[in-house]
């Protein structure tokens, strides 16, 4: 849910308007003297069910946002901040958003480094021979293998972990990226071992995770990494 939707959901038009206008019940609605024009007979209505207001005198209306904007002379952003504060909704600051973005970029980089690593193992290692044979047996040429960055994860427990740590990534980040898992005893090791690796791309071509398949008949046949947010 967007911040705007969250604020809208947690904002009650009647309690907002009541801060400025004395409202009386009128059936399912509320009525009061319009704060935007001079009047003796109330023509300003609040509709709690629709979370909206309308003045039949000035023939204007809207929701809680437009009411505050008009009443306080604020722009939309200022109104959002005011109502968010009132509703107890935190608006992510620019710094917070930048940090989030950076973290995401770093997760892409980790996954991309892992994809290159798996791909290189497939093409160039002696261990990768059985995976190469598997792909070739299914009609994958070297060209398709590199086009899709197909790969192979070695049978060791910490091959990828060591490699990515050498690249400057922390164990924490690698767990977050779904490439390492932690055992109940607290040991942290490679999630994918002795598997065929298929990078999963998002719409922009970022590697966001991996699908992995066993080379033999063992179960489970497929393992996927939890996709990065
Ligand atoms: Zn009015």
Q: Could you write a compact summary of the structure shown?
A:
The chain is an alpha+beta fold and 229 residues long. It has helices spanning 3-10, 13-18, 64-72, 76-87, 94-124, 129-137, 142-147, 159-166, 171-176; strands spanning 24-26, 29-32, 44-47, 52-55, 60-62, 151-153, 180-182, 188-190, 195-201, 207-214, 222-224.
Overall geometry: rod-shaped
User: What is bound: which ligands?
Assistant: zinc ion
Strand content: 15-25%
Evaluate the radius of gyration: 29 Å
Unreliable runs: none
Q: From the coordinates shown, what is the CATH architecture of the largest domain?
A: Alpha-Beta Complex
Q: Helices and strands: which structural class? A: alpha+beta
Order of strands side by side in the largest beta sheet? 1-2-3-4-5
CATH class designation of the largest domain: Alpha Beta
Q: Please give the alpha-carbon distance between the first and last residues.
A: 15 Å
Share in helix = 40-55%
Largest sheet: 5 strands, antiparallel
Order of helices and strands: HHEEEEEHHHHHEHHEEEEE
Q: Estimate the mean pLDDT confidence.
A: 91
Compute the number of strand runs: 11
Q: Under CATH, the topology of the largest domain is which?
A: DNA primase DNAg catalytic core, N-terminal domain
How many domains would you count in the coordinates? Answer: 2
Number of helices: 9
- CATH superfamily membership of the largest domain: DNA primase, catalytic core, N-terminal domain
């Amino acid at each position: 849910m967007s911040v705007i939707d969250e604020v809208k959901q947690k904002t009650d038009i009647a309690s907002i308007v009541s801060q400025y206008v004395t409202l009386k019940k009128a059936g399912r609605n509320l009525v009061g003297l319009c704060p935007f024009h001079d009047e003796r007979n109330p023509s300003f209505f609040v509709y709690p069910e629709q979370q909206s207001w309308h003045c039949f005198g000035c023939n204007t209306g809207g929701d809680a946002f437009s009411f505050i904007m008009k009443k306080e002379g604020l722009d939309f952003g200022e109104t959002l901040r005011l109502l968010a504060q009132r509703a107890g909704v935190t608006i992510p600051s620019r710094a917070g958003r930048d940090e989030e973005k950076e973290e995401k970029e770093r997760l892409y980089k980790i996954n991309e480094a892992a994809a290159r690593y798996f791909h290189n193992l497939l093409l160039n290692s002696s261990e990768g021979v059985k995976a190469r044979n598997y792909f070739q047996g299914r009609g994958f040429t070297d060209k398709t293998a590199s086009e899709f960055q197909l790969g192979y994860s070695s049978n060791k427990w910490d091959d990828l972990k060591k490699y990515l740590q050498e690249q400057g990534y922390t164990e924490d980040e690698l767990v977050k990226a779904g490439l390492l898992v932690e055992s109940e005893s607290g040991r942290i090791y490679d999630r994918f071992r002795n598997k065929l690796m298929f990078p999963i791309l998002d719409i922009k071509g970022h590697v966001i995770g991996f699908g992995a398949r066993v080379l033999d008949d063992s179960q489970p046949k497929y393992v996927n990494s939890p996709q990065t947010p």
